[in-house]
């Protein structure tokens, strides 16, 4: 990332401040959406750990269950091996792992996403603080600039 450029907000016009505010609004919105997506992904990995712990047990062996082929298509099946599972490692690739390795894999993903979420949370908070500062400066400029602008316009006409 490039180093942040510092700008004296007081030197910007109300129109420029409005543009900066809009840009910050868009950034905060985008980052907030990304934050929610990371939280959802983290929860999915937690669900995977829980599924392995609860669904791949010796007590479930040879009992009928539904196997997901897609998000909406399931086929009947039976759990034949409680020691190994197929793990989706991304982009449609699956790797056979022991249940302990699979839990470790998903736990690592949860932890990695947790770190990313904290970093993104700090960025969102920083952008939100910047947005509040810009809004305050813009509000002050509009309040202080209203009568001045009217006087300038009147002076230019006469």
UniProtKB/TrEMBL annotation:
GO cellular component, one term: prefoldin complex
GO biological process, one term: RNA polymerase III assembly
InterPro entries membership: PFD_alpha_archaea (IPR011599), Prefoldin (IPR009053), Prefoldin_subunit_alpha (IPR004127)
This protein's record includes keyword Transcription regulation: no
Domain of life where this protein originates: Eukaryota
Coiled coil: 14-41
Entry keyword set: Chaperone, Coiled coil
GO MF: unfolded protein binding
Family of this protein: Belongs to the prefoldin subunit alpha family.
Cited PANTHER family: PREFOLDIN SUBUNIT 5
NCBIfam families named in the record: prefoldin subunit alpha
Protein name, entry field: Prefoldin subunit 5
Organism: Friedmanniomyces simplex
